[in-house]
Write a structure and sequence with these properties.
Strand content: over 45%
Largest sheet: 13 strands, antiparallel
Radius of gyration: 18 Å
Number of strands: 15
CATH architecture: Clam
Helix content: 10-25%
CATH topology: outer membrane lipoprotein receptor (LolB), chain A
CATH superfamily: Lipoprotein localisation LolA/LolB/LppX
Number of domains: 1
Strand order of the largest sheet: 8-7-6-5-4-3-15-14-13-12-11-10-9
Order of helices and strands: EEHHEEEEEEHEEEEEEE
Distance between the termini: 20 Å
CATH class: Mainly Beta
Structural class: mainly beta
């Protein structure tokens, strides 16, 4: 049986992550929650000016506010290894908030989508197909993740996120700036940006009790149409690797039509 165990993926790091773990309620096919102790990273004392400089450099790395608007859509395909099994995936996004993601293997597939107003979930096993229109928490989470740009990229615009600079850290031999992002629901994430390139190296996510619920690690960056893409993304819970996604092809501004994101009839 194909299942989304934990998927929290960011290929073009301007884009927000797609996180099936938070979309669906406990006990569903998609929900697995891992809790590990969380040690707070110390507050940085370098001041607001340093934070703004880092965020500005990050924005410039991904095209700058003006040039980045040229990027209207992206389609990414690859493979996902999870529980020792390999699956295929296709993720498609279109500005400003259209999203479609499909994970499939053999005769099984699961597809989630958001068309700017409605969210839906399509599951297929052999000839059996079920379609569910999402509501409640699942819809709220999917809607939030459908935004084309990440919170860090929108820092110069009016938004509901709060940013704080934490003390620098080393990830292996790479120095990283750590930015704390608090979303409109009060949930905290820590974004680790390479101190030299500002490429995103890792995201730590915490729940309302300040417990670490997951980590996403990004590597193997390559420039595609001038934009940096991470071609390998690893999901972790504690010291355990849950999944590894490898990007095989990327299409930028391929003319994705809006009907692609509509709820399917079958």
């Amino acid at each position: 049986m194909l299942r989304f165990r934990k998927w929290n993926w960011l290929a073009l790091d301007r884009l927000p992550p797609l996180n099936f773990r938070v979309l669906f309620p406990k006990g569903s096919l998609f929900f697995v929650l891992f809790l590990t102790p969380f040690a707070l990273i110390g507050q940085d004392d370098r001041g607001e000016g340093v934070l703004q400089r880092i965020l500005a450099q990050y924005t410039e790395t991904y095209g700058g506010l003006r040039d980045a608007t040229v990027l209207n859509s992206v389609s990414i395909e690859g493979r996902l290894v999870q529980d020792g099994k390999e699956h295929r995936f296709i993720m498609q996004r279109k500005r400003p908030n259209l999203l479609r993601y499909r994970l499939f293997s053999d005769a099984h597939s699961v597809t989630a989508g958001y068309d700017g107003e409605m969210g839906w979930l399509r599951t297929q096993t052999g000839e059996s197909v079920s379609i569910e229109r999402l509501s409640g928490v699942a819809l709220v989470r999917l809607r939030a993740q459908a935004h084309f740009e990440s919170p860090l990229f929108q820092h110069q615009r009016k938004n509901e996120y709060t940013f704080k600079l934490r003390a620098s850290r080393y990830l292996g031999d790479r120095s990283a700036e750590v930015i704390e992002v608090i979303d409109p629901d009060g949930l905290v994430s820590h974004y680790f940006l390479d101190s030299r390139t500002t490429y995103l190296l890792r995201i730590d996510r915490f729940d309302a009790t300040a417990s670490l619920v997951g980590q996403t690690l990004y590597s193997d960056y390559r420039l595609m149409e001038g934009y940096p893409f991470a071609h390998q993304v690893e999901e972790r819970a504690g010291e355990k690797t849950l999944s590894v996604a490898t990007v095989e092809s990327i299409s930028v501004n391929s003319g994705l039509l809006s009907f692609l994101f509509k709820e399917p009839v079958r």
